[in-house]
Amino acid sequence: MELLIMAYALKTACARNIIGVIPYFPYSKQSKMRKRGSIVCKLLASMLAKAGLTHIITMDLHQKEIQGFFCFPVDNLRASPFLLQYIQEETESPRWFVH
């Protein structure tokens, strides 16, 4: 909610670009229609657009198709390659790794 309020305040202050950095995008697993349910992720994307965001940077979306819910660019960064590299470098026996 605070992100929406801040984005709207920036929009009304005539900011040219409003970029939201959202490390964990909430409701990203609710991206498909379920019985008697709604697509909450699509609703959140709509709310962010109405608040004035022009770009989002997030990490590890549940599905890459979620980017299609937005009417502005979404950068979906992946942390897993860096985490795997760190674990491989910091442990002595990498035989239990699953690639």
From TrEMBL:
Among SMART domains, the record links this protein to: Pribosyltran_N
What keywords tag this UniProt record? Nucleotide biosynthesis
Domain Ribose-phosphate pyrophosphokinase N-terminal residues, every copy = 1-52
A GO molecular function term, named singly, is: magnesium ion binding
The record's listing under Pfam families reads: Pribosyltran_N
Any one biological process term the GO annotation gives: nucleotide biosynthetic process
**Would I find Cell membrane among this entry's keywords?**
no
Hey, which family's this protein in? Belongs to the ribose-phosphate pyrophosphokinase family.
What is the designated name of this protein? Phosphoribosyl pyrophosphate synthetase-associated protein 1, isoform CRA_e
Q: From which organism does this entry originate?
A: Rattus norvegicus
Lineage of origin: Eukaryota, Metazoa, Chordata, Craniata, Vertebrata
